[in-house]
């Protein structure tokens, strides 16, 4: 399905990013496993991908730093010769009530989650324009649509990603670059495991399907958006949330 | 100078799909050659590759006419 294509997945060492990297690899894409801090985990993902019979390389880069991002994309092109798919997945949380949230907590989340998406998109757009083809898939969040107490920074960043997705889609459509977002709901990852049992319980009451999503549920939609099957879809945000927000 | 202009002219004519005789030094990409802003970005990218130079975003924004491009390339090489 994606044979011979190159996918750059940011924040691919864990959670949803890892599942996306593996899913794209299963469908034949070679993968650049970007990570920020978890080198050992990234190495594990590389090993798992190589076991699937495709190529994988891990590259450390901080997506919030322009120079670091430029190097990431340059190295990716050097390794595999093209970038056909970019998945902007790298994200962090620094939850706090608005009244308690420090400026620094706000800035850091915006820097990684929103500016990181902008920088990576900008850095690959040149290559994709030359190729006259490309897919960019941004991992937003359902809270970017609905809002969520305690996550002013994260929600602002993710809502920003959805807006960025629409603008990028419009700007690059004439060059056959398709840009979409996915908005995962309550997905079982390290990030959600930090929530207390009570918090998890009360959140589940908001989910019509009455269960947590799996990283693979998100990964399969990303694979669809990266594939030929999705070649008339751009600028959309697909909710993967068990019906939480309609 | 003439060489650079000839080379730039053929790249522009090719990229923007216009007749070479329309590509004069005074021609504005957007007003005279019917390029949209993405076309100009692409053109700058192609000129970078062709002449093996790097055109910073700030400089690229100032390239509005064929002459601007030729002058910029001459100043770099």
Automatic annotation (TrEMBL), chain A:
The biological processes this protein is annotated with in GO are:
fatty acid biosynthetic process
Q: What is its EC number?
A: 1.1.1.100
Query: Ketoreductase domain location, by residue?
Result: 5-185
User: Which superkingdom is the protein from?
Assistant: Bacteria
PROSITE patterns given in the database record: ADH_SHORT
Q: What keywords tag this UniProt record?
A: Fatty acid biosynthesis, Fatty acid metabolism, Lipid biosynthesis, Lipid metabolism, NADP, Oxidoreductase
Can you name this protein?
Answer: 3-oxoacyl-[acyl-carrier-protein] reductase
UniProtKB/TrEMBL annotation, chain B:
Q: Which residues carry this modification: O-(pantetheine 4'-phosphoryl)serine?
A: 37
Tell me where the signal peptide lies: none
PTM section of the record: 4'-phosphopantetheine is transferred from CoA to a specific serine of apo-ACP by AcpS. This modification is essential for activity because fatty acids are bound in thioester linkage to the sulfhydryl of the prosthetic group.
One GO biological-process annotation of the entry reads: lipid A biosynthetic process
Quick check: keyword Transcription in the entry?
A: no
The family database entries (PROSITE patterns) matched by this protein are listed as: CARRIER
Q: Gene Ontology terms, cellular component aspect?
A: cytosol; membrane
Does the record's keyword annotation contain Electron transport?
no
Q: In which pathway does it act?
A: Lipid metabolism; fatty acid biosynthesis
What does the protein in this record do? Carrier of the growing fatty acid chain in fatty acid biosynthesis.
Family of this protein: Belongs to the acyl carrier protein (ACP) family.
Q: Identify the NCBIfam families for this entry.
A: acyl_carrier, PRK00982.1-2, PRK00982.1-4, PRK00982.1-5
**What is the protein named?**
Acyl carrier protein
Q: Which organism is it from?
A: Oceanobacillus sojae
């Amino acid at each position: 399905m994606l044979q011979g294509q190159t996918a750059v997945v940011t924040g691919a060492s864990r959670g949803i990013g890892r599942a996306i990297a593996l899913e794209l690899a299963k469908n034949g894409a070679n993968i650049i496993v970007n990570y920020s801090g978890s080198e050992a985990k990234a190495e594990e993902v590389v090993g798992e991908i190589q076991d699937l019979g495709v190529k994988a390389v891990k590259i450390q880069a901080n997506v919030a730093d322009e120079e670091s991002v430029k190097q990431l994309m340059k190295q990716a092109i050097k390794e595999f010769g093209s970038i056909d798919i970019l998945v902007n997945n790298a994200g962090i949380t620094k939850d706090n009530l608005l009244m308690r949230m420090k400026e620094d907590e706000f800035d850091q989340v915006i820097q990684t989650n929103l500016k990181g998406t902008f920088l990576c998109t900008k850095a690959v757009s040149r290559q994709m324009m030359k190729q006259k083809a490309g897919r960019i898939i941004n991992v937003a969040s359902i809270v970017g649509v609905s809002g969520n107490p305690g996550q002013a920074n994260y929600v602002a960043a993710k809502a920003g990603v959805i807006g960025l997705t629409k603008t990028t889609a419009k700007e690059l459509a004439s060059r056959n670059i398709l840009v979409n977002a996915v908005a995962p709901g309550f997905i079982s990852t390290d990030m959600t495991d930090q929530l207390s049992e009570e918090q998890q319980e009360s959140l589940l009451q908001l989910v019509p399907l009455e269960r947590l999503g799996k990283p693979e549920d998100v990964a399969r939609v990303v694979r669809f958006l990266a594939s030929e099957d999705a070649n008339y879809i751009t600028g959309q945000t697909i909710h993967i949330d068990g019906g939480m927000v309609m | 100078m003439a060489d650079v202009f000839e080379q730039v002219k053929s790249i522009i004519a090719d990229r923007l799909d216009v007749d070479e005789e329309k590509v004069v030094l005074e021609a504005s990409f957007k007003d005279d050659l019917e390029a949209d802003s993405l076309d100009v970005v692409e053109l700058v990218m192609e000129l970078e590759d062709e002449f093996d130079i790097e055109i910073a975003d700030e400089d690229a924004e100032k390239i509005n006419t064929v002459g601007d491009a030729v002058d910029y390339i001459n100043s770099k090489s």
